Amino acid sequence: MAxxxxxxxxxxxxxxxxxxxxxGKKTGNLVEHPLVQPSVRAVAxxxxxxxxxxxxxxxxxxSPLCRQEINRFTHLHQSTEDLINKVIMQRHCGxxxxxxxxxxxxxxxxxxxxxxxxxxxxxxxxxxxQRFKDYWRWIQMQDLVVDGAxxxxxxxxxxxxxxxxxxxxxxxxxxRKRNGVVVRxxxxxxxxxxxxxxxxxxxxLSMRAGEEDWAICFAIPANTxxxxxxxxxxxxxxxKLEELKxxxxxxxxxxxxxxxxFDNVFVPAERIFLNREVNYSGILVERFAAYHRQSYGGCKxxxxxxxxxxxxxxxxxNGVEKASHIxxxxxxxxxxxxxxxxxxxxxxxxxxxTDAGNYEIDMLLANVCKLNxxxxxxxxxxxxxxxxxxxxxxMPSAKDLxxxxxxxxxxxxxxxxDGVEVVDRMKVLRLIENLVAGAGSVAYLIxxxxxxxxxxxxxxxxxxxxxxxxxxNLVKGLLHIT
Length: 482
Ligand code: SF4
Hints:
- The chain is an alpha+beta fold.
- The protein has helices at residues 6-14, 37-48, 56-59, 80-97, 104-124, 128-142, 279-317, 324-349, 363-373, 376-388, 398-402, 406-413, 422-436, 440-450, 455-465, 468-479; strands spanning 20-22, 25-27, 60-62, 69-71, 146-149, 172-177, 180-191, 198-201, 216-221, 227-231, 257-268, 272-275, 352-353, 359-360.
- The longest helix is centred in the middle third of the chain and has 39 residues, at 279-317.
- Bound molecules: iron/sulfur cluster.
């Protein structure tokens, strides 16, 4: 079955029987845990969109690999149009969930591994590409969620993996067997890990000669023996444990980040896609990062649309929507958001075919896209905070709204104009709070800064890709300087 529904996806994740440490307790049945459930729903939305009449043509695509119609979240891009449609799809998912819907990481990892394995085989005579094709065909046909695990703990940033106080601070091979390898280490910031069927593990940086044990890429099921999950906290996360949902801000959806430990995990040979070829570790890092930097030109824009809508709505509820400075701030927010989208579309439209046959974004523009993402959502959030007013940080709780003594006072003094229900005003304020300072800000702000690499990583890539010599030569040509 190549096109699961959201309910089928939830049932399939539940059947994996994953367990995690959640706030100090070993916890099973994660899909029904109130902290985890909103993130499961967000992933489920990526499945349901492939069945809704209005969106299914965008979310479904014919796969040349398995020769079936599949969900675009498992597609190996076959054209620049595919790359553009990916960004449009991500904006839509951001619109309907207002959070990180988690499924893009595996998509981006797959497209990076597909081309990198092809080139590695050509250079080193390995057989990774066919292995990966067999694996990914199966992923497409089962319509699975795959986590892309790249970020190692990294220990002392000034030292190489083998010079660390503990060599496991970078995930590595600790034993080599006839039929596979044993790995040990950890991966941080694992977006949606507990909602994934499979994990693709990649190196975190470009390895050098002598660092072969750290140059490893593989895929394994999320419920493989020896993998341990430790759930990450998010701002105001315990509001999700409260009975009333108004204070959560985004009552239906949320993201998820997990620290994942690989405690002597066996990886069978047929699931290994890089093993000691150090020069391909950096290529994998750059390609995966670039695809995910493109992704932000879709998903963050989709969430930005919601925040702009919330700011405009609260301005209307407060009776200030016609004030010229409010209109100007809304226009500024739209301008910033659409600039991000323009970057996402541009790096897709300027993409190219790889030697392996899938399509890759324009690296320079993808990095420009992400560097803007490290800034603009912060400015959009600042403007939304400005428009929303101080009540954003001082508003009474949903419980007080229901309280027989406090409730009537809240309704009396939070009233604005005719037709504005106080509870609706509180809902909009809580949604803004969620995105600028609450659980949603992890994805909208912190992830915008650090996800797919911090700003310096994009600056390095921009410096490398920009052909500065070419620009200098333009001047020399113009001025006849030899
Ligand atoms: Fe997808 Fe955006 Fe979440 Fe990355 S941060 S997984 S691109 S929604």
